[in-house]
Each structure stands twice: as C-alpha cells, then as structure tokens.
Specification:
The chain is α/β, with parallel strands linked by helices and 284 residues long. Helices cover 26% and strands 27% of the residues. It is built from seven helices and twelve strands. The strands form three sheets. It has an eight-stranded mixed beta sheet, sandwiched between helices. The longest helix has 13 residues, at 57-69.
C-alpha cells in the first residue's frame, strides 16, 4: 500500500529560505508505507526506509569536503552509494556535474533512482546496481570520487537483521582498502578521492593511510571530526590524490578539527556554516 503522491513543498523552513534549484512543478513521487521522503539540500528531498539506513552527518561531511576541494568537478563517482545521499548533496553544489553511483543493494539503488528523478537530476545521473569492486569497467575516469564506506569488520560486532543497516556499518562487500583501490582505478589525473572514516581508535586511522598507500594514493589533507565535543570516538575526512600526481607524496596536512555538537548539546558555529554551505538549515 502506498501513501498519496508527494509533490513539491514550501520554499521556506522555520523562516529560513531554501536555496538552490527548484524541481519541476509537475514532479511527483509515490511513497510506500515503509518509506519516508525527507528534506535534503535546498529543495532536494530523499526517499528512505522508515526502519532502514537513513542519511547521516557522515554523508554531509564527505560531500562537503570533497566538493570543497574539487569545486569544478565535471564527472563524479560515488562508491557504495547507498540511497544516494552523498551524491545528491554533491550534485546540489556541483550544478553542472555528471554522476555515476554504484550500490549493491537493489532496494537502496531503487530508492536512489526515485530520489534522483524527484530532484530533477535524472539527466545527470547514472545510478548503477552492483559491486563497485567489479561493476565499473566501462565507467572511465572522474575528477572527484566520493566514498562513505562501512567502518567495522564483520566479526567486530552484532550484524543487524536489516540488510541496509548491516551493510552500512560492517564491511560485507569491501573495506577501506577496497574503496581506495577502486578510487585509484577511476580517479582522473589531478583528481581527488574524498572519504570519511573513523580516526579513533588509532588502528582505524592507520587503515586509511595503509589502504591509500597500497592503492597508489596519497592523503594530502585531512580533518578530525568530533560528533560530540569531549568524546574519544571521532571520525575524519580525507582528501587523496594519485601519488604519481605529486612531487612529494609524503606531504600531508592535518587541518583544524571540526566539532558537530558542543558540550552543551548545541551545534558548533562552524558546523552550522558547513550545513548552510550544503543547503541545509543551520539549526537542528
């Protein structure tokens, strides 16, 4: 059973004027009973399962970092793209870019296709269903490659019975080294690979640097991200280039950390500015 079709919504949210392009007036989308349709960048919206994987801060971070350091990308690849959040946020910023996304789970890829259509992006997107380790032979090269991989080996936790959630958290179809290897095969000369991954514990951070080196990539800059100020566990975002593109592949800049929520629970002003740069309201 499906809910009534959804059409475009109001141009403001709690007094904040949504920026960016408007979907066509006649665009409508059917939302199934087990789905929701939620705000994304500007007027964009995203279909998600009520009880499945939902887009998250991690998606915002990698889309922001990648498009910030590759602001004129013409072709973008999103590896393990899930329900399409990272790619669509990036597409909101990169208005003329073409995208290829690849996702192994059929339901996630189907949700992404419908969200892409709703947002008026169908002409710019090639949404593929498949394993990124072998399903991109004909894809060519890209100025920007994005990745938000699962963070933990499958034997380091309890797998969710929900396949979306399990694959999002645990490495069931490749780990950070596989993401680096795929990115290295498809990143254009001078292009970048942007990825988000835990920086704590230290072993997780080492996996990023080792995976990059094994694939012939070099991390040139990175930033730690605390989801809550004072926590030990935190993430980081990374920008990598092909090592052969650099005169000194050992050059690596660690930028000032980002804090999402401060000790009092409020959003940090820098993170609020980051959200605004992606077409999200600063509050919330």
């Amino acid at each position: 059973m499906k809910n009534p079709p959804i059409c475009n919504v109001a141009p403001t949210f709690k007094g904040w004027t949504k920026p960016g392009p408007l979907p066509a007036d006649d665009v409508r989308v059917d939302v199934a009973a087990d789905e929701t349709i939620d705000a994304l960048s500007g007027h964009f919206r995203i279909l998600q399962l009520r009880e499945g994987h939902r887009f998250s801060t991690d998606d915002l971070l990698v889309a922001w970092y990648g498009t910030s350091w590759c602001p004129s990308a013409a072709r973008v690849l999103d590896l393990g793209s899930g329900i399409g959040a990272v790619a669509m946020i990036a597409a909101w910023r990169l208005r003329g870019a073409e995208f290829v996304t690849i996702e192994a789970q059929a339901r996630s890829a189907e949700l992404a296709r419908r969200s892409v259509a709703y947002n008026g992006l169908a002409a710019r997107f090639d949404v593929r269903e498949g394993d990124f380790r072998e399903g991109l032979e004909d894809a060519g090269v890209f100025d920007l490659v994005l990745g938000s991989p699962p963070y933990w080996p499958a034997d380091e936790g309890v797998l969710s019975e929900n396949p979306q959630r399990a694959a999002c958290r645990f490495e069931l179809r490749g780990d950070i080294s596989d993401y680096c290897a795929a990115a290295a095969r498809h990143v254009a000369p001078g292009g970048i690979f942007a990825v988000v991954f835990p920086a704590h514990p230290d072993l997780q951070l080492e996996r990023v640097f080792e995976g990059a080196a094994a694939a012939g990539l070099a991390v040139v800059r990175w930033r730690r991200v605390w989801l809550r100020e004072g926590d030990d566990y935190h993430l980081a975002v990374f920008v990598m280039h092909r090592a052969t593109d650099l005169s000194d592949p050992s050059l690596r800049v660690e930028e000032r950390p980002i804090v999402v929520r401060r000790l009092d629970g409020t959003l940090d002003p820098e993170y609020q500015a980051l959200k605004l740069a992606l077409g999200f309201p600063a509050a919330g």
